[in-house]
Specification:
Structural class of chain A: alpha+beta
Order of helices and strands of chain B: HEEHEHEEEEEEEHEEHHEHEEHEHE
Number of domains of chain B: 3
Largest sheet of chain A: 4 strands, antiparallel
Helix content of chain A: 40-55%
CATH architecture of the largest domain in chain B: 3-Layer(aba) Sandwich
Low-confidence stretches of chain B: 1-12
Strand content of chain B: 25-35%
Number of strands of chain B: 17
Distance between the termini of chain A: 16 Å
Distance between the termini of chain B: 41 Å
Number of strands of chain A: 4
Number of domains of chain A: 1
Structural class of chain B: alpha/beta
CATH class of the largest domain in chain B: Alpha Beta
Strand content of chain A: 15-25%
Mean pLDDT of chain A: 87
CATH topology of the largest domain in chain B: Rossmann fold
Largest interface: A-B, 39 and 44 residues
Strand order of the largest sheet of chain B: 9-8-11-6-7-10
Radius of gyration of chain A: 15 Å
Strand order of the largest sheet of chain A: 1-2-3-4
Shape of chain B: globular
Oligomer: heterodimer
Chain lengths: ~150, ~375
Amino acid sequence: MTSLVDRPVKSDPDIFETEHRLRQGNYMRGESRNLRNLLEDDLALVVSLDLQMDFIVTELERLYREGLRAYGDPIIVNGKYEVEVREDRGKTPCPWGDRFFAPKTVVSARNLENGTILKYSLLGLHMIKRHGFFQGAQSPFRIEPSLLKKFFDL
Amino acid sequence: MVSIDYFIPALSMASLATSLAVIILLAEHFLMDYGEVELQVNDKTFKVKGGSTVLGTLKQEKIFLPSACGGRATCAYCKVKAVTGFGDILPTEAPLLTKEEVSQNIRLACQIKVKNNCAVTIPEELFSIKEFTARLDSVEYLTYDIKHFKFKLLSPSEIDFKAGQYVQFQSPPYGEVSESVYRAYSMSGRADARDVIELMVRLVPEGICTTYMFNHLKVGHEVSLTGPYGDFFLRDTDRKMVCIAGGSGMAPIRSILSGMTTGDIEKRRPVFLFGARARRDLFLLSEWAEFEAKHPGFRFIPALSGQEPGDDWSGETGRITDVIAKYVPDGRDFEAYLCGSPGMLNACVDVLRNLGVNEERIFYDKFG
């Protein structure tokens, strides 16, 4: 159990309104489950995979920061990950209504040792970190917990 | 494992609060009649129907404030100075205003309402912003992910803008997208071609507006734009110029340079440093070659940071930040015009500052 995944639910009690915004913004694409069930299922997945989300979020933030230094070019981080950060102008408000504005930035990373590819947006990273929300099954920037395990060789 | 059930009581309270808010809004909409009130904007007074937001009311009066979120208090572009007639800062505004802005009575026009006689001030240049209907006349790929759109203005039929400024493009609902969205794009054409708006747009992965423009917008379709906006334009000085861009950031630089007179180019000796990863990210090379041939005082310097097999490149290599010093030997003589990704902009500003360019002479779009 991670402390990380507890936080969001407490911080956003109005889950129906949030779910409406998430669906409008395509963050729950392909989801027949409601937000509450989706959060519960992903939480269970994280626990069953024994993912330490605080560690993973820290690492994803570090890969982003390292990648940013290459201004859009690929860069090798720790000799193990090839990271490419794409920045577009503008910001996207967090649909959870917490007044967070994420730069339109997408990180593409590849584990050079096992070939696993991970693609995440800064908004997606924020939603995991603050709200325990990995996005809907068919959302373009869903971060699959099992993929995280493989990507970080956990 | 913690169950999600623990937040249900809080959820009930929140639902109650939401329900009350909806009832109050409905009551206000149907029962409250504010009648006709006076809204003063700078030195102009408008008689308007009370009850709507300042943003919406000004739009009715054909005054278009920048706004990218459709009035949902997320973009914070629509700031005005409240002079009289508005209450305290609203909870929806507070996170988007700095302490300094609050002390200066800056407010979000999309949140504050015109309920009685009131007054706001806005930058004078916003009075010249118009809403345009335009028809897409041509579209072509510049690279694999950048397109060049050329719109013919229908109504009004002409736009008066300064090279370097931007417009806001309205993307209508399509597919699973249920709402219109507005996005800012720099104009890339000459300012004296008043009946045309040219845009260079890079496809944003999963971006609502660029997906519409790339996959749904066809030649002959009519679109809505507002503008011109922005304070990124050529300053009237004699200083040497360095322009730096990457990708679709070429747009406003092209607009600025192509509108300069031969005399100005000879006097200011502009150099345009364009950063790209590989040859396939370069575009309009022949256009810039022609421009160089026509204006000996101008230089176009593309630089590739990571070549691909077969690129056969003999030009500058490395990141654009590595190339700047070679062309800006003494920054004290220079003015800089930048457009690109936020990270690239920040890095270039640092390099230019270290080379002696006065920070007040470094100009770039602020809408990133």
